[in-house]
């Protein structure tokens, strides 16, 4: 899929870049942000509806043929049923742990659901990588990252990343390996390069 844009004009293409939350004038009202749009409404706003089977990998390229995004699809076999298994497992774990819209962990700024983080971060002014602190949800997060279906998802995403963006992947891998060779930090999915994971428990 080719889009009418030049990736060299992206802010991130000019060097180190930090995403901004956006101005209030651009974000709209609370009602605007919570509105659920129909496909026809989005098309009327200028969006393009792309037909996709959800399985076949499709790269999205800029006007010079550079890959800027990928619809990574899914592997053959039982992957679809494993996704459903992971979804049901997360729902049950969240319910058993008392997580929901009215719990102290939610809603989150990304939606009307709690979000739990596990792994490593270097944000919030830390001078070096530190372990994210899930506090009372440690056991829940350990069960989530240990579930076979969740691990399968992480490993497929890791493989897709390495296939479609090999140079960026290699940079991630070098940082990951260096960090874990020097610091005793948790690793969610051994064999992958992802430093952290966010679980949306809605």
UniProtKB/TrEMBL annotation:
User: What is the protein name stated in its UniProt record?
Assistant: Uncharacterized protein
Q: Which organism is it from?
A: Lentinula lateritia
Region called Disordered, residue ranges: 1-32
């Amino acid at each position: 899929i080719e889009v009418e844009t030049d990736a060299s004009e992206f802010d991130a293409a000019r060097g180190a870049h930090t995403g901004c939350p956006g101005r209030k004038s651009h974000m709209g009202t609370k009602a605007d942000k919570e509105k659920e749009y129909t496909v026809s409404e989005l098309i009327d706003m200028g969006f393009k509806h792309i037909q996709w089977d959800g399985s076949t990998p499709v790269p999205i390229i800029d006007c010079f043929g550079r890959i800027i995004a990928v619809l990574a699809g899914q592997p053959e076999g039982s992957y679809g049923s494993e996704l459903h298994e992971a979804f049901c497992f997360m729902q049950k774990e969240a319910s058993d742990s008392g997580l929901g819209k009215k719990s102290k962990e939610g809603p989150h700024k990304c939606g009307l659901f709690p979000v739990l983080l596990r792994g490593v971060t270097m944000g919030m002014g830390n001078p070096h990588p530190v372990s994210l602190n899930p506090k009372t949800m440690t056991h829940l997060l350990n069960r989530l990252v240990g579930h076979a279906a969740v691990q399968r998802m992480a490993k497929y995403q890791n493989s897709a990343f390495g296939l479609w963006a090999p140079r960026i992947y290699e940079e991630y891998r070098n940082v990951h390996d260096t960090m874990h060779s020097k610091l005793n930090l948790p690793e969610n999915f051994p064999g992958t390069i992802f430093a952290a994971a966010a679980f949306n428990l809605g």
